[in-house]
Amino acid sequence: xxxxxxxxxxxxxxxxxxxxxxxxxxxxxxxxxxxxxxxxxxxxxxxxxxxxxxxxxxxxxxxxxxxxxxxxxxxxxxxxxxxxxxxxxxxxxxxxxxxxxxxxxxxxxxxxxxxxxxxxxxxxxxxxxxxxxxxxxxxxxxxxxxxxxxxxxxxxxxxxxxxxxxxxxxxxxxxxxxx
Length: 179
Prior knowledge:
By secondary structure, this protein is mainly alpha-helical. It is 81% helix and 0% strand. It has nine helices and no strands.
């Protein structure tokens, strides 16, 4: 059911995806428990479905719930899944123009990623690119450029110059230069 919901989501069939995701969450809560990682993953998927429908408030509430549960009761503050939850919430804030809140969470993710995963881990590079995007959206070009150059150099060295992530960082840097 979760896979079918994912397929619907990938097709932009939000209502069908949402209906299945709700069923999956209810079943996983009953069978596994509310705090099981699979249940939390399903809740995160539903939050994304809400976000894709422009249902910002519902998406944010669910993302906060998932993040807090992962952070405080299940996985801990430094687990990669917790960092993904924090980054997802930051993305929601960024999309809403809530720059300060997005920036605070993104800085937290970068600092933890650097300490736990290392400077060359792809998730760390993605976190840097996300913060650079927040800076760019505010017209903070120099700060965005510094992060994008650092991420580009590291990504080129670690993933390769033709890797999709590296090319995305280069494109974002080009946009920063253009602006």
